[in-house]
Amino acid sequence: MFATVIGLWRMQRIRFFDIAKGIAILAVILGHCAIEANLCIPHRAAQIAISFCFSFHMPLFFILAGYFMHPERAFRWAKESRQLLCTYAVTTLCVLVGVTCMATLHHESRALALQTWGMTALYGNGDVSNLTLWPVGFRIGAIWFLLAMFWARLLLHIFAKLPHTVFWVAACFVFGYISSRYVCLPWSVQSGMCAVAFLYLGYLAKKYDVLGRVKRIPYIWVAALLIWIIDVVSFGGMSMAMNDYGSHPVLAVVGSMAGTLCVIGISQLLDHMFLGGGGLSKLGQASLAILCVHLVEDDVLPWQMYLGFLRAAFPHMPLVLLSFIVRLPIDLVGAALLYRVPVINEWFYPQLVKQRQLRRSKAMSQACVPCGE
Predict the structure, then answer these.
(1) Would you list the domain boundaries of the chain?
(2) DSSP readout, 241-284?
């Protein structure tokens, strides 16, 4: 019974963190919709959406991941591989199937599509670059995050066991940032080298109870909001996928930290609301699955052609909004279907593993209770 109580206690989730991840995954989808819409027809609404979304969404995921890390423990190779590398492999496999089907529909070469996208999946670069070690035709897109997260977690586990951890984290960030100006290494290694700094920030935030301190000094929220607004207004570009922090790199990093803090604050407010908080919390819990489904439709479907149709059908509506309205349901339905796939669903929904362990613990506890009790 004691083990069951402990298991239940461990299962408790801090809901406002899930809400923050729900907001961030919506920002990921909106940001990609804005990029596509802006390429189709440049518009101020799309540019504002890009500045807002890219100012915080990926840093938030890394910072929150660091918040719940225990780098002083041994690195769990099996768990991290299932949740990050296996999900990457499954998602890229779906992309290869998808592009093969699209090539068939458009009477194009299936072999060429498989070869080009297979090389892209193998290289794992978040965006197109002319600095790759060998020619890579496309970019794998959003799931660079999975590879970078794997490397960042591994590196932080190594650095946490060394003296002067902060020095090693800073040196890793600098090396990843500078080296990416000259070469783009495969498997998003350099992105992971920079992302380790955001993981470490999250770890330190938990260690020194930053949220508790901010709660006691509410003026920090005002300062964070002002910094975030300045970052969005003067946005000079930010792509963690390619270690590009734009024309104002210091402001981009500090602004992403301020934006993350503000989103967490907003999430705490939404946590007390009957409407909104629950739905965003569920999105946050499904954020990994949503990200991977979104990546598949983003890589496979010819959105530039579809956006032209949407623009003709709804000429007075912002194209970025039209794209978001169309693509979000696709991602949500795909994530819901993924939830139903046995075995694989536990890779994309880590909470299912904990639920299974809890059920097993309950069954063992009940089996140990004497019949007379």
Answers:
(1) 55-213
(2) GGTB--S-HHHHHHHHHHHHHHHHHHHHHHTT-SSSHHHHHHHH
